[in-house]
Amino acid sequence: MDEQINSRALAPVGVFDSGVGGLTVAREIMRQLPNEKIVYFGDTARVPYGSKSKETILRYSRQIIRFLKTKGVKAIVVACNTASALALEEIRDEIDMPIIGVVKPGAKVAVEKTVNKRVGVIATEATISSGLYTDYIKAQDADVTVYSKACPLFVPLVEEGWLKDSVTEEVARRYLEELKEQNIDTLVLGCTHYPLLRNMIGKLMGDEVTLVNPAYETAVSLGELLEEKGLAAGNENRYASEMYDFYVSDAAEKFKKFANSILPFRIENISQINIEEY
Ligand code: DGL
Q: Which residues are paired to 121 by β-bridges?
């Protein structure tokens, strides 16, 4: 039995996102849990998820999970905030392995950080209209007031690589204006792409506002979950030839360029698959 558990522990963790943004979560898992192998899937053919319906995101998420299962994963991280907000609760009941998203861990940190109990959440339109960040925050502390704002232009601006551009700064100024007026002291970066705009958002919001990146806490929660289930990898995996596998549904070259600009090492091999087959 012990042996069985141990060999399962050496299996990879499946991480998925609508595209490249989830690499900010994968990067954090690599940093905090260096023994864990990762199979990453970015749905680059069907990004963005943030403007799509719940039914569509559920269908996509189910397909991706079926694909990740073919890679023998032992647990799944829904690195996409939109899929975490719209699909995770239903999917959790359908699969026989541990699965976590990014919304709950992000909400937890926000409640821990806020002092004046005024929290801002920025995310895609779908995540904001799901109301899930607000629900999770309020479930932990009903006295916290949550101010939400969808920032749909941030994703294409980040994908374009305009991280320090004056156009992006102007867009950010407009989006963040009303949150600034609400006197929030904590702001959740509730979309995979937003941590890449952290410096700009931080400058606009000012030092008195704590920025929460759910990726960090998600990696912490993953570590705890794997330990609890007896699935945490020991350092045997470090000798594996391939620790990280990357799959996309389209535009592998573009993905590679982006990945190499944010990961601490170079990746060469990215496989393209037809996700509609799953
Ligand atoms: N990954 C998505 C999220 O975190 C952002 C990109 C998209 O809209 O698909 O919500």
A: 148, 188
Kindly give the number of the ligand 1 atom that is closest to the alpha carbon of 18. Answer: 9
Active site residues: 80, 191
pLDDT in tens, 154-194: 999 998 889 999 999 999 999 999 999 999 999 999 999 99
Residue 61, both tokens? 């998420």
Name the domain count of the chain.
2
Asked if 229 and 92 sit in the same domain, the reply is yes
Which structural domain range is residue 76 located in?
2-101+216-277
CATH of residue 273's domain is 3.40.50.1860
Q: Which of 214, 230, 248 is the last residue of a domain?
A: 214
* Closest residue by CA, ligand 1 atom 2: 80
Separation CA 106–CA 275 (nearest Å): 28
Q: Using one digit for the tens of pLDDT, what is the confidence trace for 108-143?
A: 999 999 999 999 999 999 999 999 999 999 999 999
How far is the centre of ligand 1, averaged over its atoms, from the C-alpha of 5 (Å)?
34
97 and 220, same domain (yes or no): yes
Half-sphere exposure of 131 (CA within 13 A, CB side): 4
pTM of the model: 0.94
3-state secondary structure (DSSP) of residue 141: coil
182, 214, 246 - which closes a domain: 214
Q: Could you tell me the end-to-end alpha-carbon distance of the chain, in angstroms, rounded to an integer?
A: 32
- Is the same domain home to 155 and 28? no
Output the six-digit token pair for 240. Answer: 């594996």
Torsion sign across C-alpha atoms 276, 241, 263, 128: positive
Probe target for ligand 1 pocket from 125, 192, 196, 258, with the most ligand atoms within 8 Å of CB:
192
115 and 206 in a single domain? The answer is yes
